[in-house]
Amino acid sequence: MADTKKIMLVEDDGFMLDILANKLTKSGFEVHVAQDGEACLNALDSFKPDLVLLDIIMPQIDGFEVLRRIKDSSVWRATPVIVLTNLGEQKEVQHAMDLGAKGYIVKANVTTKEIVEKINNTFGIHTES
Fold first, then answer.
1. Nearest by Cα to 29 from 13, 51, 46, 12
2. pLDDT-derived band of residue 1, with 50, 70 and 90 as boundaries?
3. Are strands 51-54 and 103-106 parallel, antiparallel or unpaired?
4. SS3 for 33-101, per residue?
5. In Å, what is the CA distance from 76 to each residue of 44, 51, 68, 70?
């Protein structure tokens, strides 16, 4: 498929990383994984993602700082970032949205299918359920 969307999956939990990477790949996306914020930032220029799926609580550089740096970058600011975390307090959601997140998903509240649907909606891809 010529127009395969590229997703940078940033998640420090190996189990969750494997599940999401497999689901996204099976859903037709090209996936690059990063297990911390520093690895994400280092891989942006070489991978050139169409979307970043970003955890917040991570080693090295946390997701809020990664999001801030992406949105401060003239090269990457237009790239949609969807936060995928277990932090569900309104102040955390608001902080992410204020930093420029396109969406905010609490892991405990969704299935992998719903995550793919949110990504497809972000890209304007409509699929049959």
1. 51
2. very low
3. unpaired
4. EECCHHHHHHHHHHHCCCEEEECCCCCCCCHHHHHHHHHHCCCCCCCCEEEEECCCCHHHHHHHHHHCC
5. 8, 10, 11, 5
What does the pLDDT look like over 11-53, one tens digit per residue? Answer: 999 999 999 999 999 999 999 999 999 999 999 999 999 999 9
CA distances from 79 to 8, 68, 71, 100, 108 (A): 11, 12, 8, 10, 25
54 within 8 A of 100, measured Cβ to Cβ: no
Is 4 buried (19+), middle (13-18) or exposed (0-12) by CB count in 10 A? exposed
Strand partners, 103: 82
| Residue 12: DSSP 8-state | S
Distance (Å, rounded) from C-alpha 37 to C-alpha 74?
19
Pair of tokens at residue 86: 């277990």
